[in-house]
Structures are given as C-alpha cells and as structure tokens.
Amino acid sequence: MSEAPRFIVVDADTDSQSELYATVNSRLLEEEAVRDSFLDAVSAREKKYPTGLDFGHCQVAIPHIDPEHVITPGVLVCRNAQQTPFRAMDDPDRELSVRLSIWPLVTDPHNQMDMLGAVISLLQEDSSCQRLLTADPTELPEILAGVLKAVGQQE
C-alpha cells in the first residue's frame, strides 16, 4: 500500500519567479518530497511550457514536472504575498500576475491528467482562489480533497 499524498503549504514573500521556485524547492527538499533535480527540471519546463492560467476571477500557476523528479506524491500550495509574473499556458506571450500557485507532486504518470483536471475544476469556482489564499492552512486539505485524491489514486 502506498503512502497517502502529502499536503504542504508555503506562505512566501518573493518578488520573482526564480525566488518563488527556489523557496518552493527548498521546502520540498526539506520535506524529502522531491529529488535534487526538481528545481532545474521544473524551471526548464516552465520556460518551455508555461503554466499560468487566467480564470477571470483569479490568475493561478500550476507548475508541474515529470514523476522521476518526485519522491512522494502530494500537493504544495504556495501563497505569495506579492504577485509573481507567469506566462499564460494558452498564450505564452501574455504575462499573468499570480499570487497562488499549486504544485502537484505526482509519482505515477497516469495520475497527472486527473490531477490537473481536479485543480482546474476547483479553480473554476469563483470562491476557490480566495479561499485558498486566505484560509487557515488547516482548512486547505479539505478544499483540495479532490486534487489530493487524484494525486494519490492507484492504478
């Protein structure tokens, strides 16, 4: 039986994407959730395949990476005090101002699409972004229950 997906919250105060990535990477390494290759891999992937999404009511990034860089499944929610520029997934020339980023940690490649679908479905609800940004960290696993389930499901 595999370990339950981990849930990690990072409240950051960074003013650049590289600082944000370094902060998240540091926390994930501390939690032994990712391999040393994670930061370089997720940074390179973001340059090639931007992860910013504009839902109208909020702008969010969903940086994700191939399973070989992840040790344990889970989800990290990063709430940044400052807006960070991310390029839009659907229009890489467009810059979005993001305070909320959701970092799926998938160890089974079959779970990646379900997990991304669960994140997008959640964020389409008007209140979800605000709740994720302002809720007490102890309330976030309940808000993200569908995402955690998708990350940790077994084949």
TrEMBL record:
This is PTS system galactitol-specific transporter subunit IIA. InterPro entries: PTrfase/Anion_transptr, PTS_EIIA_type-2_dom, PTS_SugarTrans_NitroReg. PROSITE patterns: PTS_EIIA_TYPE_2 (PS51094). Gene3D superfamilies: Mannitol-specific EII, Chain A. Coiled coil: none annotated. It comes from Acidipropionibacterium jensenii. It holds the Pfam family PTS_EIIA_2.
